[in-house]
Amino acid sequence: MISRLGTVVSFGLLISVIVFGRDFASYLITSADVVSDSVREQIPVAFELDRARHMIDALAPQIKKDRYAIAREQVELENLQSRIDELVESQTLEKRSLERLQKRLESHTKSRRRANGVSRTEPIARIAETRFSTYKTQEATLENLRRTYDARREAVESKQSNLELLVAAKHQLSAEVE
Q: Which of 44, 41, 21 is nearest to 33 (CA)?
């Protein structure tokens, strides 16, 4: 049965291509548009209005969901900004502390005192090296947090513009229904 249907459709397409030639696709598209337009003309206006109202009602939950998501992201952005601010403050203090430690190390290096065969600068140098390594790691973390913040802020701005478009579409549909 299906093979017969396939054969009939294939035969019909072949005849159509032979009759219409290169213009076959144009005739096919135009015919589809005419049929589609005639079907749309048969749909009652009341039905179209009901359909538009349902579309408006369907936008409301999406708008609410998007507003909630944006608010949640904004809170997370504020928290991330607070974390960045704390880390910047911590890094500023640590930098000052490292500078003092460096001066201390330089002053001990100049005096080059040894106690029991051990230089007094060795423990200070190890401490400075460890703290400087930690400082560099925190700097990298701070840079990553800033990049994350910028990316998330751009995402929130994009979501806000999409929300504005959605709200505008809802208002447009409401105006058209009225």
A: 41
